[in-house]
Each structure stands twice: as structure tokens, then as C-alpha cells.
Probable inorganic carbon transporter subunit DabA
Amino acid sequence: MIDDALHDEVEEALKCVAPSWPLQNTVAVNPFWFMKDRSFIEALSSLESATHASLVWPLDHYLKDLEGGRISEAALERALADESKVSSAPIPETIDELIEASRNEIHAEAGHPTTLILSCAEAFLPESRWNVTIINECGKHAAAYFDRRQAIAGLPSARNKEGFFESWKQEIRFDRSMDFFGLKGLRDCAREFAEASSREAIAVMLHELAIHSHTERVLYMQRLITTVIGWATHFRFHEWQAELTNTATHIQTEDLLAVRMIYDLACFRAANEMKQRRPEIDMAIAHWKKSLQAELHTLSLRRIWLRAAEYSFQDTAAVLLQGFTSSQASLPASGSPSFPELTTNASGEENPWMHVVFCIDVRSELLRRHLELSDSGIETSGFAGFFGMPVAYQKSTEARETSRLPALLAPAFHLEESAACRQNYDLRARTFTESYFRNLRKAPISSFLFVELFGILALGRVLRRNLTNLRRLFGIRVLPQRFRDRGFDHTDPYQRAGISHADRVQLAENALRRMGMRRFAPLIVLAGHGSVTANNAFGSSLDCGACGGHSGDINARLLASLLNDRDIRASLAERGVSIPDETVFVAAVHETVTDEIYLLDSRSSSARERNLLKRAQDVFAKASLAARKERQASRTRRPTALPHRRAHDWSEVRPSWGLAGNAGFIAAPRSRTRGVNLNGRFFLHDYDWRHDTDFQTLRLILTAPMVVASWINLQYYASTVAPQVYGAGNKTLHNPVGEFGVVEGNGGDLRVGLPFQSVHDGERFVHEPLRLSVFIEAPLEEIERIVNQNEAVRQLVDGEWLHLLVIDESGAIKRREAHIFEPVQGQVNHRPLAARRRADHV
């Protein structure tokens, strides 16, 4: 029987599943997004039983950080005091007691590992490996269901837009795979629900399994859906897109849950027929409740250590942001014991000759710093990499448009790329030919003869690639193929799309005001970012999250074309935004694997502009080299002399560290951070509240860039603390499925999150799992007002999914704790604990 209670239970169970984006446009996602109405620790502790994984770093990691000096004693004492206010369990009173309790807990966990058995497939016949087989079978059916012409023959039910539950019931009538694995009653179970909806089937199965209480039902369904969490996230993605565009969809996550439950019901019946003991679900739940009470002590310990690590990071950052310029202090690199020397603050020229706008992505921090240090006439700023262009864009060579904006937003405009007239015919002919040969390569018979018959056609491409690699070997900078425009017309796609002049002016004005641009240098470079890698299924995860998992070159080109338009400038001047005639906007791309900056569409007939561009290219080359060297030294113990080879090496599993190490977000004037070595650990968004009269820009920062940064941060967090559940596994074992995901090996669940090689160098983790620390320089009352007016932001802040810190005009920093802002006393602590105690003893 379906009632409101069951509806709520299913919805609550499925909250543990967040969407994951396809491989073509991978977007970093907070895997706990739908649980944000609960506190961070409460949500993670409830998920540990369902996922069979610890979602906070093991205690031994924190003990090593304390010994190495990464966690300060002052921060640990504050964390102990905080925990004493909220914990109902007895906690240690001193640091020594905490260390002793933590060591005892480590020994206890090693001697008595506990795993709750919460599904029938796991409880019975472990030698038959039913649970693993069921996961593989669910993956097989889901892969066929989501196939979009990758296979020559697809499922009729998928083509007819039937739900997954209906599709599976049709296919399972003929699929005898589980019969061969000993589960002979599966098809009989499926037949019983031939006319039932997924929700009706779930209700019947919960009743037969005698799972009645709300807690039991939610936990049981959570366990089942997390065994196929990768496929569940892909279902959730389709639901997310439908909700974002306000369209209907036949793809529902609960269909997958119903299918997974039928497999479990078949296991239950099979076990009873074999006269085995019925799985004691009630006992498992009771044991879980007891374990939860017993583990309050362990949970408190882990929460104390996590807070202490975050406080230590915040204390060091606070010192730097308050103008500390001693060469003895700097923000440490994630996963590294080293403390690079801090450079002194520099103010920059009054009238810069070049202004470079970067994405707030943490990888731009190093490059911005080196650019400013190399030439005091350069000014940089940080802004979301889609540059305020909320567009869906379709390239001439692509079958469908792609959204070039944050995943939280829906596109406001739809634009198409148009080839120059003389190339239209050639382009259509080439696209048709390539499509034809791709189909030949996939066909059952012609695929065996494809290389022998048509391999010679790849000769030109091979020669061009070798020539390009040879030029790079001799130090010649070559614009990567993916950023070349091939003669396409980027000048005015807005008119072709029917976007009015008034809308274009509004787009341009919004971008300039949100970027806080109040003075205009002769050369303004809009630098989106993207990566170039080879044989990398997760290549788009290294691109721009603000651009929807694509490179930011298109958005930079679109905004540059607007701001260079004389008619647009004239209309902007009427609105009080006067751009000097000598100012030119140039699109660029920051290639993040090699830290090179490439100017795009930089052809000019003016000698003055050519000189500016030449000067810019020289400065970019020097800054890129310096940033490359620093990044390698801070992120790996084995730097390479030729980082360009990483980008084009098919065997390279670590071409780039991506956003590893991210831990903070700063929205403040550049004068607050200029010249400070933040070691690539902060998202830097330029913001000056004194020029934000209505605080709409502050609202935008708190509701969009900050939330996106939190998504990235928590994806890295989850992929580090629980790689077996929320990580994408080993790159060397990946096999792509369709065009939307990978499996590890030859089947099973989709792997979500980040590959293990993205957070681990083979010997140690290079990412330190800390919640995002957000530093905002703005009036405290305005920040509090915006937080309280936006439910999602309020949940993130109140639930401690991130830390909110406010910088006042004097530079003092306050941390928001339970609606109270407390002063942060920045401390620099470099000596390891053992060394300090030896010194104190002497």
C-alpha cells in the first residue's frame, strides 16, 4: 500500500544520491547535495552505515599532521572546546588525553572491524558472490538503457521513452543470466510486478521483507541504492536537467531502486527455499542503533581532529590576509610538509598597461601572482570563468548544443557557431564523411577490416601531430588544436540568434559591473581556461566548472566580441560605463596542464595593438615558466623537466593535479591578496563592497561562485576520504560506457567522483580533505542578511558544509559559529609538536 509515509521514505533514501554529469562535460558535484538540510557531521555519520565507508579521514592521518606541525595545538584546543559544547558523550579534556584516546581507538578499530549487513544479497551465500553479480547485472541493463547510438542495436524500450523499470521488466523475461549464477527465481519475481509501478513494487517488497519502521526502511533502501550509486547518479542527472529546464522526463532514480530491490527479494526467497536462516534485518538495524551510540565517542574524536585541521588552515590564512610579510610564513601546499617563502605585498601601478581577468579556479592563483611580480604594470582579477555569458552554444562540428555556464543555472540564450561562407560546404562534407567512417568502425563486420582498409586516411593526422610535437620539443609555443577557431566567425553570433541590441548591452554591462571593472587598461585580456590531455576519459573534469565542464575559450570570445563592438560601447557610455577608444579586449585561454596562456583572435591592423600583444605574450611566457616550476615543486616529489609531454602522453595517468589542494575561497579586493603566496589553495574572486551599492554582486557571489566552489571542494573531499564509494577508481582499469561514464574493469557500477590518481601520487595523498573556508570582505550584517534569505546558502552555512569568515575594514577576521561571529586570531605554527615539547622541556 502506497501512502505519504512511503513517499517520504523513498525520497529521504534517495537523498544520498547527487547527480553526476557525462564525460563530455564533467562537472564537480557535492555528492551529499540533497542532504544539505542536515548538518555535515550528521549526514556523513548516517551515510557511513549505508556506504560501509568512513567519511572522515582516519585518526592516524591527523596524528601524523599534529606531529608534523600541520595542526597547531592552539587549533586543537579550540576544537576540543567547541566539541564540549555540542557532544553528549564524554570527550577528552586535554590534548594529551585526546592523543591517547585516538591511539586507543585506532587499535580498537584494527582489532574489531565492523560492517553492517543490510541487504539480502550480502547476507546469504557469500561464496556465490550474488551481490557483485547483481551490481554487474544492474550495470548491464542500465548501460543498454542509456545507450544513444553507440551500439548498432539499442533497446526498443529506451527508444520508445519508457521508464527504466518498465524497460527492465521487458528485457528480464528473456535474460537468463542470473539463472546460471544460481538465482533462478528472479524472473518469477519480476513477473509478479508486471503491472505495478516502481513505487507500488517497493511498497510490496518492504512488506514481504517485514521492514516496517521508518528508520529501517530508509537505511535498507539507502544501502541498496549505494551499491549502484554510480548508475543512480546518472539517473539523478537526467532528473536534474529536466527540473532545470522545466521539462518532463521518463527517467526516474526510484526505477533503479525498484529493480535493485527485486534482485534482493529474489535472494531472500532463494535463501528461504534453501532452508537458510532468514536475513535478520531487524537485528542488523538494532545492531546499527547500538553501534551508533557506541560510535559517538569515535565520531566526536574525528570531528575534533577535522575541526582542528580546518582551524589550523584558517589561522595560517588569516595571518597572510592580515598583511603578515615575514619570510618565515606561508600557506603550506596540500599534502606537503614544506612552507614556501612568502613574497611581500606589491601594490601595482596606478595606471596598468594590461589587465588580465582569470577564472577564480585555484590554478590561476599561481599564475596571477607571477604575472604581477614580473611586471608592476600588470593588474589581474578573478571572476567566474563563464564571464557572465549564460549561453548554450553549438559548435558547427557538434551534433548538439552545450551549456557554457554553471550547472546550477539554466542558459538564457542559445547561440550557434557559424563557419565562414567559403567553408560551409567543406565543413558539411567533412562532418558527413567523419560520421560515416565512425559508423563503419562500430559495425559488427566492417570493424574488423577498418584499420586495414582505411588506416592510410589517418596518415595526415599522424604527420601533423608529430610535427606539432617536434615544434614543442624545440620550445616553440603551438596553440592546441581544441582552441583553434579554423576560420569560424565569432564576431556576432548574437544577431544570428535574434538577440536584441538592448539584451547585448545588458549582458556587457552586467559582466563589467560584476567583475568590478572601473578603470580600463589599454589591453584587457579575458582568460578562460581549459586543459589538453590525451587518452583521458576524465579530461573535461580538468576544464572549467563555471563553463559547465568545458573550456572557457568560447565564453571569453563571446564577451570580447561584445566589448569591442563600437555600438555596444556607445550604449554602455549612455549608462555610465565609458570604455576608452584605445582599450582593446582580447580573448585568451589558460591551458592548465602546462600553465601556458594563449591569445585567441589576436589579429590586429594597428601597430600599437600589435606591440601590446607582443609584450603580453613575452610576459605570459615568463610567468608560465615560473608558475610551472612552483606548481611541480609544491605538488609532487618527482617533477618532470618536460611538462608538455604530460599533456600529450597517452600513458600518463597524472597529466595534471587539477584542483587538488583546494580549501579556501576569498571574495575581497586584490590588494588583500596581491603578492601573497596562497599556494594554489584558494579560489580568488575580486570584490570590493564599497562599489556594490545594492549588494547584488555580493548576493551573486554567495549564491553562485561560492556554492560551485563548495561543490568542487566536497567532491575532492569525498574522493579522498572514501575513494571506494565516491571516487572513480584506478585510471588504468577504466573502460568508457557510452559517452557518459566509466566502469572499472569489464562491468559493474559506474565510477563517480575523481580517479584515485587525481588525489594520490602513489605514495601519499596530495589533497587534504578540508571543508571550504570562505573569506568575505563585506559588511557583516549584509552577509548575514543574504545568507538568511537564500535557503540553500543558509543550509550550507548553518550545517557547517563550509566555514564562513568575514574580513572587516581593519583587516580583522571573524568566523561564523552558530550565528555568532567570533574573532580569529591568526597563528603561524611551523615547529612539529615533538620539537616544541622538547624545547619546552629544556
